[in-house]
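We both want to read discrete structure tokens more fluently, so let's practise on a single case. Would you supply a protein for us yourself, any chain you care to pick? Would you write everything just below, so we can both look at the same thing?
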Amino acid sequence: MSVPFLSVKPRAIKLKVSPRFPAQLIGRAGIDVTKQNGDYYLDLDYNDFPTIGAVPAGATYALIFNPATGQYAQLPISLLGGGISDAPGDGTIYGRRNAAWVATGGGGLPEAPNDGILYGRKSLAWSAVPAAPIVRDMLTAARTYYVRSDGNNANNGLADNAGGAFLTIQKAIDVIASLDFSIYQVTVIVRPGGGGNLNGGNLLKNYVGALAPIIVGDETTPSNVVVDGNGSSAFISDNVRPWHIRGMRLRATSAGSGFDASSGGIIYYQKIDFQTFNQGYAHMRASGAAIIAATGNYSISGDAGFHLLAVNNGYMANYLAGVVALTGTLNFSQGFAYANQGGVLYTSGMTFNPSGATVTGPRYAATSNGVIATGGGGVNYFPGSIAGSVSNGGIYG
């Protein structure tokens, strides 16, 4: 028996499910649900979360967000270290060191040492702050400063008028000491009436540069520019590089010398007029390997205890073929030229011209290994009314 073949054509079957409305959205702890115009909004409500005073220990997790991956992850709370604890409540003063409380010694932070040095904090210790390096004005050309009786030390010293010049020589010296000359010359011009430092002498200072600075007044008429030490020497060089002093009258109405060089200080001079000094002092005094040397003619119009005084290995050189003009009535009670304790006076070539002058006192004294070298000038080489003397290893010749 044959069975008839039944042909069936397949057909697609579609299922359509329609949800029933209204659907229910229920907020749990920390989630608020609001409906607006048929839309539902889900928001975190932070007020539903409890507040804790410390990070709990154990296997608690915190949810963190990684902006690099855009994903959330769980972080074991133990990795947070348990939070920051309070300092011990034992009355001791504590400070933080990393995550730990460290006692500061019970008395708080100590004061910095009271020794005049600037201090700053390094951790808990005071450390001295290094001094700022000195920045010098480096010259690119020769420079001239001016000193006038109507000047002001608040000026810059660069103009020859009341609004630009300094009032005192000392101010010019101080400014020069702050420069870097490089290869250029620095000159101080002292106008008539300016430069008298009536409260003390002018202290020469070391400088940076190849050429010795020059202080010059009136080389034609030195008496127009008067520098009075008034209780000190007019110019003092103590362990200082060479300076040139020219064209002025030096005097000291009470104590002090005209030039006083010590401990290797060096002064070169010319066109100087040495006026009256106290009989206990000298027109020029060199000691301790210092040098005072004439570079040209000069004059003497006042007396002193000594004109030339070299002691304690000091050296004084007046060896140019120059003339020293003497005027008036002059008295050098200790000796016109005096060398003591290894001091050396080398005056070969100078002519001391007392024409019209009256000079009293010993001509010279060389004592205690002091040396006076005149280049064969003889015993009457120096002016005076009393013969010179040599004693205790002194040399004169």
Notes: Helices lie at 169-177. The mean pLDDT is 85.
